[in-house]
Write a structure and sequence with these properties.
With about 110 residues, the chain is of the alpha+beta class. It has helices at about 30-40, 45-55, 60-75, and strands at about 25-30, 80-85, 85-95, 105-110. The chain has one domain (about 25-114). Helices cover about 30% and strands about 25% of the residues. Strands 1-4-3-2 form a four-stranded mixed beta sheet. A hairpin with a 2-residue loop joins strand 2 (about 80-85) and strand 3. The relative contact order is 0.25.
């Protein structure tokens, strides 16, 4: 299995140092395109999901990381992006309501599938 791109030094959020999941992911799904590309790269979907649910947002800019930090508090949508070579995977966890833990669903997809 190939390793996903490592985060730059100093890019960890305060949440990455906590143990255990930060939120419920709800129903989990992946698009056929994402599944095919993960297989091509030897990426286990569970690895991406684990990173996402533990606050490792991957390759996001500072403002998107901050938006996720707010989402953990207000229950809104969470977003992660993971780069592997020329390819990128997104994980989106949709909000249910004003609850800081429960989410409706989580999907692994390609940016072109959004």
């Amino acid at each position: 299995m190939k390793n996903l791109k490592q985060k730059p030094a100093g890019s960890a959020t305060e949440h990455e140092h906590q143990s255990g999941p930060l939120f419920g992911m709800g129903q989990i799904a992946a698009t056929p395109g994402a599944l095919e590309l993960m297989e091509k790269h030897g990426v286990d979907p569970a690895t991406l999901l684990s990173r996402h649910v533990n606050g490792d947002w991957g390759d996001l800019c500072k403002s998107d990381r901050m938006a996720n930090d707010v989402a953990l508090q207000d229950g809104s949508r969470l977003f992660s992006a993971y780069v592997m070579g020329p390819d990128k995977f997104w994980i989106i966890t949709e909000a249910v309501g004003a609850d800081d833990v429960t989410r409706a669903s989580t999907c692994i997809l390609l940016p072109s599938e959004y």
